[in-house]
Amino acid sequence: MDILLKDIMIRDVITISPDKTAQDAARLMAEHGIGSVVVMDSDKVIGIITERDLVRKVCAKDIPSSKVKIQDIMSTPIITAEPDLPIEAAVQRMFNNKIRRLPIVENGRLVGIVTISDIAKHMRTKWLIEKIFE
Predict the structure, then answer these.
(1) d(CA 35, CA 26)
(2) Class of the CATH-defined domain 5-132
(3) d(CA 130, CA 134)
């Protein structure tokens, strides 16, 4: 039986609008203990901003984070997945696109997010359970 993304996805996704600043994104990440924020324009996923984006596109260039708009540094176009996608297919999509985070969209609506760490934790747990019951 395939494990699907909807079985492991995080449903409470932290989002930000493209007109907010890099400082706003950094604060959200710090407050919620996360490494990325999905960028939304109205109800549409248009990009993602990660800690790596902040470091490379703001901090490393010594630009004040309060002066940089999310729309200018977000990663786009965004790669997404459907909730019914099997984990193995999601890993392949992430590998092919060199990404670590995959927003989950259903009928054009953001319903969750899965990270490579979420998948690794799930696979490790699955492996341990299989070993215990061998």
Answers:
(1) 9
(2) alpha beta
(3) 6
